[in-house]
Amino acid sequence: MTAHTSHGERPLVSIASVPALLMCLAAPAFFVARMPWAGGALVAAAMAGAVLVERPWRRGREATASAPSLVRDLSLIAMGLVIVNAIDLRAELDDLAMLRFTLALGGAVAVPYAVSRWVYRDRAIRFPWRGGERWRPWQWAWLGGVLVLGWLILPFYFITSGVYQNWPVVDTPDLVARLFVGVGAVGIWDELFFICTVFVLLRRHFADAAAGVLQAIVFVSFLWELGYQAWGPVLTIPFALLQAVIFVRTRSLAYVVAVHLLFDAVVFAVLVYAHNPGLWDGLFLVPSP
After folding, report:
1. Residue 206 CA neighbour count, 13 Å, CB half
2. In what helix (H) or strand (E) does residue 149 lie, and over which residues does it extend?
3. Which residue would you say has higher pLDDT here, 35 or 7?
4. φ/ψ (deg, to 5) at 103
């Protein structure tokens, strides 16, 4: 198979899958195993593999200007991963930690975007806010479904697994406000990076299903270090895959952000509830610890 095909012929699997998978596997090396040397080695292997995959194809074709470059697209993902890996992702709410998150996560989106637009000049990364259509009834229904599912599942997950302790205690109005801002900001960033950057770049080369699975590896690995541990991947893997599907169907960043923020609103409420026994008694089906 060739490394690149037209939009309608994007393969589920091809020789290009090897470097793409290596690049995405750098995420669990960085964020789950916390082995920067292994993550760096996987990034380097992925880029070398992309060069090997792409060069024979380029020699065999003259009209390459309109075809997406695997080397360029994987390099953009690599930039984001390396920038995020520069900081400790444990949830903290002090001024320095919030500044660190802002600079690193912001850079992980801004740098690949800037390189794509002004260096590579291919505008591979875009942020389609509205998608050009009004939200349909199923979209409004799903927003309600997200709240109900979050209310049913998240308290059980956070409290029975004890992972709420991966977030700092929030027992003052200032800390509660910081948690609210932090949870929401990271939720928005998730969609800017994992969907509008990683997923969008991968689907230039692979079928949507393959691109979705690959981006889910990166998405879930980041969330693991952030605190969604224990059996969290049972929740975060379907969420990452579903967000990719929804983005393809709606072409709307606004909608996937809305879904994510509603989910995160429940996360915020559960964390406050778990860290403050007796507060909001009766709000959830699982008693506070």
Report:
1. 26
2. helix 137-161
3. 35
4. -70, -45
